[in-house]
Specification:
The complex is a heterodimer of chains A (286) and B (182). Chain A is an alpha+beta fold and 286 residues long. Chain A is built from five helices and twelve strands. Chain A is 37% helix and 25% strand. A six-stranded antiparallel beta barrel of chain A has the order 1-2-5-4-3-12. A six-stranded antiparallel barrel of chain A has the order 6-7-8-11-10-9. The chains are: A alpha+beta (286), B mainly alpha (182).
Chain lengths: 286, 182
């Protein structure tokens, strides 16, 4: 033992220990936390470390080739289920977005007409033999729909009136049907008349405000609304805007051609007004 | 269940499904192409072609079924399509069974007659009869063009139904076939 303590190797070891200890203290107090020795060692062996890591990755990938096909099959099935779920969520999202748009449009109408009770409906069909764009909605008597309930767009434009009701569906005669007549007035001049149409105008998807005076003051761009007379349609629902005013060839009155503000061929949703103040009550124009 | 009865049931179920599909396609917007607003009345040739391969009573029932489906979307005259197609089915069934041959020519003749008659009746009862302004010309600007458009597809519908009936008949056992031919 005494010989070892006095040997040269012990002295070398002792010096090495002291230097390393000093290096550790230096690493502890230095900013980067590394002693000069570990920095130097790292600098020398870092390329080797990188090479071995690269080789290790290669082994990992090679190992995945030996993964059983059932593992991959399970992963594929899981991913397919995830994709299907995302697709369903996307469809739900789009449908909800469409409904929100419809309700947003109707909110303005509801704020103006707080007495309206409405039932939202979707267009599900039409009669091929009807030349006047009648539509079928997916609500019926089980939803409180009755014949002669008015039907509007989300933005308050009148579409038509329920002409036939089943248990789960109803058929709507639109404003392009000559049999649908709506008492109306022009907003600026307050002139009254009734909205109807004929075959020629219906083909172009126009209506006409008939029964105007010969010297009417209605001009292009005027807005025509329902007057509420008759108790079928509530007051102040927009029918359309005036395209032009013409003299009737059959009598001394004039009429205005109206462009409704919706495209019947692209209509997908509608609102059926099941109740409003004054429904069924005949109100005269006086 | 005898094989022949099974064939009858299969035949009738398939034809009923065909009528349902045709009604949906005809009465749903944007499902079939329209030409300047001119549409097709596919239910009429389907009923006529089915009637050509069935007995008159069965054909009348198929026509009734087709008319009921069409009436659910009809805004006017509830029951008009039912009665009309029932009559078309029974009359075409009687004509084919007792008077006329069953071929493409008679199919086109019967279908064109049914379509024109349907258009005339609809126009008379629900347009002219209701006093629709300007309705006089609608027969020429809408209904007859619809008839012509529908007639173009009649040979295809006839061939489809004939092929199905032939295939079903060929699958019957030989002795039943001979009994049927007698």
């Amino acid at each position: 033992m005494r010989r070892f303590l006095k040997s040269r190797w012990f002295k070398v070891l002792l010096i090495l220990f002291v230097v390393l200890f000093i290096g550790t203290i230096y690493a502890a107090v230095s900013r980067n936390g590394a002693s000069p020795f570990s920095s130097a060692t790292g600098a020398i062996f870092e390329p080797l470390q990188r090479a071995s890591s690269f080789i290790g990755d290669g082994f990992k990938k090679m190992g995945s080739k030996f993964t059983s096909s059932s593992t991959y099959e399970k992963q594929i099935i899981d991913m397919q289920e995830q994709v299907e779920n995302y697709q369903k969520q996307l469809i739900d999202y789009e449908q909800t977005k469409q409904k929100v748009k419809l309700y947003e449009d109707f909110l303005g109408v509801k704020e103006t007409h707080s007495d309206f009770k409405v039932e939202p409906a979707t267009v599900i069909g039409r009669d091929a033999a009807n030349a006047f764009y009648s539509i079928v909605l997916n609500k019926g008597t089980s939803d409180g729909i009755e014949k002669n309930d008015p039907v509007i767009c989300g933005n308050g434009q009148i579409i038509g009136v329920v002409s036939k009701v089943g248990t789960t569906y109803c058929v709507v005669s639109t404003v392009f049907d000559p049999s649908v007549k709506i008492s109306a007035y022009e907003v600026r001049t307050r002139e009254t008349g009734f909205s109807t149409t004929n075959v020629e105008l219906s083909r172009d998807k126009f209506c006409r405000l008939s029964g105007l005076n010969r010297n009417t003051a209605i001009a292009t761009g005027g807005i025509v609304c329902t007057s509420g007379v008759g108790g079928i349609y509530p007051r102040d629902l927009v029918i359309g805007t005036v395209k032009e005013v013409k003299n009737d060839s059959h009598d001394i009155s004039s009429y205005a051609i109206i462009i409704p503000g919706f495209d019947i061929t692209r209509l997908e949703d509608a609102l059926i007004i099941t109740d409003f103040d004054g429904q069924g009550v005949y109100v005269s124009e006086d | 269940m005898k094989k022949e009865n099974l064939h009858i049931y299969i035949r009738r179920v398939v034809l009923a499904v065909l009528i349902i599909i045709t009604a949906i396609m005809q009465n749903t917007a944007h499902l079939l192409p329209t030409i300047f607003g001119i549409r097709t009345f596919f239910l009429v040739p389907v009923v006529v072609c089915i009637a050509m391969f069935e007995k008159d009573i069965t054909a009348a029932l198929f026509g009734t079924f087709a008319g009921l489906l069409w009436d659910t979307t009809s805004a006017v005259g509830d029951g008009f399509n039912t009665i009309f197609l029932m009559l078309v089915g029974s009359i075409c069934g009687i004509l084919i069974n007792y008077l006329m041959r069953n071929n493409m020519v008679t199919a086109v003749i019967l279908t064109s007659g049914s379509l024109v008659l349907y258009s005339l009746c609809y126009w008379l009862f629900f347009v002219v009869g209701k006093g629709v302004a300007g309705g006089g010309l609608l027969i020429f600007t809408f209904y007859l063009p619809c008839c012509a458009y529908t007639l173009i597809f009649t040979p295809l519908i006839y061939m489809l139904i004939r092929a199905f009936m032939k295939k079903l008949r060929d699958s019957l056992p030989m002795q039943r076939k001979m009994k049927k031919q007698r």
